[in-house]
Amino acid sequence: MSAAPTEPTPSPLPSRPKKEATHQEKDGGEDNSKTISRPHPKPSFPTPKLRLSTLDLNHPGSNVFFSNTNPSKALSEAVDAVLSILYQPTKTNDHIPACRSVTLFLQAMGGVAYTTGSDLDGDHKEIHFSLDYINQIPSARQKDEIQGVLVHEMVHCWQWNAVGTAPGGLVEGIADFVRLKAGLSSPHWKKEGGGQWDAGYQHTGYFLEWIENTCGRDSVRRINHALKDKKYEEDKFWEQLFGKKISLLWKEYEGSLDEQQKATRENEEKVESTAKTHEEDRSDDAEMNGEDKRSGHPEGDEPVKKDKPNNNGS
Ligand SMILES: [Zn+2]
């Protein structure tokens, strides 16, 4: 389009509208003296190629997956969650492991999921997700559980592991910590002391959350970063990061859980005793009104529908 770009001769009239209506190309008529300092583009995270491979569309788990998940959105949201929780972007992003592509394989297999580098090139990651597992998730949990597993596995694509020497339980704990922070924890997860700090998964995930709350907001980022290229030496590792041995941190965490439990117990007792008095009041009313007193859900906060009769779901 020839939009008569000739710059009008300087006019004494001050009331000339600054911008002509044409919202087309900006390059023509703009006053360059004013568009001076454009800020440098903000550093942003790497964006890997995301791919999907569905090996068995006849499998009922495939139907569950696609009824609940838009894979393109789900995978890119998982990448965003993982990178924003574990890293700050920089110009070079050389503190982030190379990961050029992530391919999700949906396939019939035992277990839940696993992540691996491709045979040809470790920078290309593969997440293998079990259709059998997907098929037995209670329907009310399907969407969140699928996304939760994707986020957990996506962490493995991007986390450091002290050149293969980090405790497996720490690696798995970081994955569930990120899942927790992404708001995708599972209803059966609970904070628990006892056992080893690095028993893994949510057990370690909640411990990491406590470290984050007591030792500083970016603690897990720092832990992950410290696993970048040095071998893991337990005492040195934790002392350098937080000035304490991990065994001491674990003890402190267990102590905080005891206190929390005591407080919730006391609260529950209070709530129970007030509920009892209310219930007594209500049952008096109900008797008077002939009310049906069946309770809502048998347990938990989600009505778990088992809509597949031949699914044992155990
Ligand atoms: Zn894992």
TrEMBL record:
UniProt-listed InterPro entries: Uncharacterised_BSP
Domain of life: Eukaryota
Region (Disordered): 1-51, 259-314
Residue stretches of biased makeup (Basic and acidic residues): 17-33, 259-281, 290-314
Name of the protein in question: Uncharacterized protein
